[in-house]
């Protein structure tokens, strides 16, 4: 539309006022013709419409239009999301792992063997070491599904382990015969909630060690991009370390003693009686 105008509609003829002011019940509103068809004067000629001296008219210049054909291509990346538990609601890694273990036990009861990577429900009432290991594996899968994309796979040379359904990255100690440094499980920095809890647990397990020691022990089994930055960010928020690093209270600079207290004067010279 090139030319159009705004006109004032009186409140009694405006259907919008009926809805905003709420002076009609739903039954009355259902049978009210103005609500469904608008004011009656819309059916007449424009000359019979209510007049208002402050009508606003707009006129726009006509422009030549040209029709162009374009081809738009889009790339859709489907990311498989897996979330066993909301890690943002739990503040400890051990508590998160045990909660995930109980959730997996519940899944075993209701799945009736559909999850082949979960063994049968143990008869013990307490959680077993296998259940805790399975919970750790499930949390790693959840962390990887939240952040790993094709760019990170190519950048960090990750490979997919079909046996454990997780992404791994090769270390520089692949040729060692000791066997205590397996291929690290990749933790994306985007899955900050799980990564943060794991770093905090490793830090506390080492009796609040420093950044270098915590990062070294963490990389025995896990690897995350910008690991030093991630560890430093978590350790700077550790309240126990903050108390140990806190400096004692420093007294303010004391002002000079008044002259009346340090200069020799006569008795009662500066005291009123």
UniProtKB/TrEMBL annotation:
UniProt-listed InterPro entries: Integrase_H2C2
Outline the extent of the Integrase zinc-binding domain.
Answer: 194-246
Q: Name one Pfam family in it.
A: Integrase_H2C2
**Superkingdom field:** Eukaryota
| This protein's name | Integrase zinc-binding domain-containing protein
């Amino acid at each position: 539309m090139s030319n159009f105008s705004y006109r004032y509609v009186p409140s009694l003829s405006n259907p919008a006022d009926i809805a905003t002011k709420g002076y009609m019940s739903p039954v009355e509103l259902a049978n009210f013709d103005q609500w469904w068809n608008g004011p009656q004067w819309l059916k007449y000629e424009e000359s019979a419409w209510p007049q208002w001296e402050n009508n606003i008219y707009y006129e726009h210049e006509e422009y030549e239009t040209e029709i162009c054909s374009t081809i738009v291509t889009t790339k859709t990346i489907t990311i498989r999301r897996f979330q066993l538990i909301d890690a943002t609601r739990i503040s400890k890694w051990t508590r998160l792992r045990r909660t995930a273990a109980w959730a997996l036990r519940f899944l075993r009861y209701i799945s009736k063997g559909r999850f082949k990577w979960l063994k049968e429900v143990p008869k013990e009432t307490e959680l077993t070491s296998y259940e805790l290991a399975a919970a750790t594996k499930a949390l790693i899968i959840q962390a990887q599904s939240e952040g790993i994309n094709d760019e990170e796979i190519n950048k960090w040379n990750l490979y997919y382990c079909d046996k454990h359904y997780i992404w791994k990255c090769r270390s520089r100690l692949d040729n060692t015969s000791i066997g205590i440094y397996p291929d690290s499980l990749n933790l994306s920095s985007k899955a900050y909630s799980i990564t943060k809890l794991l770093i905090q647990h490793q830090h506390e397990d080492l009796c609040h060690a420093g950044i270098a020691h915590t990062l070294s022990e963490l990389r025995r089994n896990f690897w995350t991009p910008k690991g030093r930055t991630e560890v430093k960010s978590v350790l700077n928020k550790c309240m126990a370390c903050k108390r140990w690093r806190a400096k004692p209270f420093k007294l303010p600079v004391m002002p000079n003693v008044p002259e009346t207290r340090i200069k020799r004067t006569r008795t009662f010279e500066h005291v009123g009686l």
